[in-house]
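Box 3.1 A note on notation
Throughout this textbook, protein chains are presented in two layers. The first layer is the amino acid sequence; the second is a token string describing backbone geometry. Keep the layers aligned when reading.
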Amino acid sequence: MFLGGDLGGTKTLLALAERDASGRIRIVRQQRFASADYPTFDALLDDFLAGRPAVDSACFGVAGPTDGHSAKLTYLPWSLAAADLERRFAIGRVALLNDFAAAAHGLALVDAREFVTLHPGSPVERAPRVILGAGTGLGVAGLVWQDGGYRVIPGEGGHFGFAPQTAQQGELWRWLLDPDGRVTTEDIVSGPGLARIHAFLGGRPRQPDEIGNFALAGADPLASEALRLWLECYGAFAGDLALHWLARGGVFLAGGIAAKLMPRSDCAPFIAAFLAKREHRHLVADMPIFLVTDEELGLKGTLALASG
């Protein structure tokens, strides 16, 4: 028996699994938790492992930086130590990794129907790939071909400084700079970032899901403008990452709010900003963009690693 987990600032997914006779992963039990309901990850895991099943190995994808042995979530007061988890829960081996590194490992396990092509490009086999996603924060990881498979390169690219590309984006940057002193891309390209954009445009406080639903329904011009600007900032950042990695193997978009909004949105602002790379437009034009709609992408990656 092995255990996988996708630990995020909003939700945590855990699953116990085993290999069936054909070697495929079979989930025995799976549960979704509201992360903020628990003061520590230990308390949450204690609930999930009630009855203490024998667990040989575990892997947890954590929304924050980690060295593989310890981790702290960026938007929760949770700290994890692999050795402590092994001892307290009698798990043979515990591995920790960044949540988007886990998502990158999960790409190979996703059904083809869960990929939506936003821009076809001209994909190159075994070329570098990049995965990013806007949710509670903004996750990023790279993939490079090595020794017959893709090697995952974790990172904290969501905390790059935000680079305005239009006069309006410059005004947004200035508006956020005054109270905080530094503006990261994650401040804008995330669920909370959509709410900040809406406030910047003069809207009253709303939750990101509410803003997105109003925009999709065409019920609020301000919400529609906020979503357009959000998509524009997201596309510009995705294009910058594509250039950085020379991601001719594909740019993969994951994460909660993107998977909910983008299949029903006009993605033209995203694509236009992605391609707006001046003399290097022809480079990014060849890079395909895929939206990954599987909400269990990170969990699948951790289960694959825990079983290995």
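The chain has two domains: 2-106+297-306, 121-287. Residues 128 and 144 are 5 Å apart (CA to CA).
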